[in-house]
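Technical note accompanying the year-one report. For the benefit of new consortium partners, we illustrate the data format agreed upon in the data management plan: each record pairs a sequence with a structure-token string. No post-processing was applied to the example shown here.
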Amino acid sequence: MTNTAQLFLESTHVFEYAELKKLLEEEFKCDYKCSADIHTELRERRKSKQESFHEYMLQMNKIAAIGDIDTQSVIRYVVDGLQMKSDFKYTLYSCKSFRELQEQYEVRTEKYIQTVPKRRIIASTVDPPIIYERIAKPLQSVSAVTRVDICPEIVQQ
């Protein structure tokens, strides 16, 4: 035992396991949450950009562990909380375990990264001061800028 439980153990004198168990349950009892409240909490939880998928999944499991929520429901809530295109979510819904979900998520994110076009800014015959002036003073004429391609697929005439 560590931290508070260890301090509690040191402050009591117990000689039988049944008595220790009873005292620990009384001291550290947790309030029961209604199943509907747990489902609401799972439904509203979203993955933040700062947390990894693994951390997010563990947090969702922690919430679900308060009650008796089946694995398929938790997986559905986890997938619903992801901020990605629904096309990529469809295969994640069919996962049967958390391990499979994590593996499929990694595969999907790899495919997603590969499908996103890389953006390049190509400035031809444009000096940096002119670009700065155009950003700082947008009402000036654009005649000094001959061509700026934001994406190679877009060709401006």
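Partners are asked to follow this layout when depositing records. The helical segments are 3-11, 17-27, 35-44, 53-65, 71-80, 86-93, 98-115, 128-136.
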